[in-house]
Amino acid sequence: MSEYVQTPEEEGGNTMMPAPPALPGAVPAAGAHGGHQPERGPDTGGGLYRQSNLRRRSRNIRSRLAHALCALSTVIAMVPLALILFYVIYQGAGALNFSFLTSLPKPVGESGGGMGNAIAGSLILIGIAAVIGVPFGVLAGTHLAEYRSPRLSWIVRLLSDTLSGVPSIIVGVFVYTLLVLTFKQFSAIAGGVALGILMLPTVARTTEDMMRMVPDTLREASLALGIPRWRTITSVVIKTAGGGIMTGVMLALARIAGETAPLLFTALSSRTWPMGLDKPVASLPVQIYTYAISPFDAWHKQAWAGSLVLVLMVLLLSIGSKLYFGRKMQRAR
C-alpha cells in the first residue's frame, strides 16, 4: 500500500503526494504511524577493549617475570664470586703484612717469611707473556678485521677458537717439550712463552671485535684523503678501537696470572729471588699450590695470604682496565 506525505504548500488541504520509494535494504525510520526502532547488534566495541586490556596485562606480567628471572640469575651468578672473595679475605687477611710482600720464604719451623720472590716472579712471567702474546694477538685480530680473506680468516678463527679451548696443561707440556727439553733446564722464558700462547686467542678475538665496531666511514674518509691503507689501520682504526683492545689485553693478563699447570712444566719454582730469565723462577700460583698441599699449618696460612694477593691483583687489574679504558672510549665517542 502506498504511503502519502503532505507537502508544505498543502498543509491546509487534504491533497497528499506519494512518499519516495524506500531504497533496498534500508531500515524504515521510526515514525508516528506505527514505525518501530530497529534492533541493535551486539556491542563489540566493549569486548575488543576488554580483550586488548587483557593482552596488555598478560604482556606486562610476562615482562616482569622475565625481568625477575634475569635479576635472580644475576644474583646467582654473583654469589659464588662473592663467597670466594669473602672466604679468601677471611682466611688470608690475618697473615698478610708488609713483610709477607717483601720477604723470602722461611724454612719449616721458622716463623715469618713471605712470598716476595713469588710476587716478583709472577710479574716477570706476565711481562714476558705480554711481550709475546700482545703483538701477535693484535696482528692476528687486525688481519681478521681488516683483511677479510674468507679462507684464511676462517682458518685463523678456527685455530683461535680451538686454542682458547685447549687445557692449559697441554700448552705446558708442549712448551716443556719444545724449550725445556731442548735447553735442558726450566726457565722464566719457557713459562712466559706458555702464558703468552694462552693469551693469544683472547687478544686476537677481542681485537677483531673492537676493530669491527669502528665505523667504515672513518676508513673511507681516510682513504679518500690519499692515506695508505696500512696508515689508516694504524692511525685511525687501531687508535679509535684502542680502549677496547687494551681492555681485552688486561683481561687476558688477568686470566693468565692465576695459571698453575703450565708453570709446573716450564718455570718450575724457586725459593730465591729471580736470578735470570734462563733460570727457574717462583710464581704465586705454584707457591700457593706447594704451600696448600703441605702438612704445615703455617704454610697453609701463607697459602691463603698468597691467594688473597693473587685475587686482589686480578681484581684490581680487571676493574682498573674497565674504568680507565671505558672512560677513554666514552670520550672518543
What does this structure look like?
The chain is an all-alpha fold. It has 12 helices and 2 strands. The protein has a domain at 117-332: MetI-like fold, CATH 1.10.3720. It has helices at 44-92, 98-102, 116-146, 150-165, 168-183, 188-212, 216-224, 229-240, 242-256, 261-265, 284-292, 297-332; strands at 4-5, 17-18. A two-stranded antiparallel ribbon has the order 1-2.
Brief digest:
The termini are far apart. The chain has a domain at 117-332: MetI-like fold, CATH 1.10.3720.
Topology:
Layout: E1 4-5, E2 17-18, H1 44-92, H2 98-102, H3 116-146, H4 150-165, H5 168-183, H6 188-212, H7 216-224, H8 229-240, H9 242-256, H10 261-265, H11 284-292, H12 297-332
Antiparallel strand pairs: 1-2
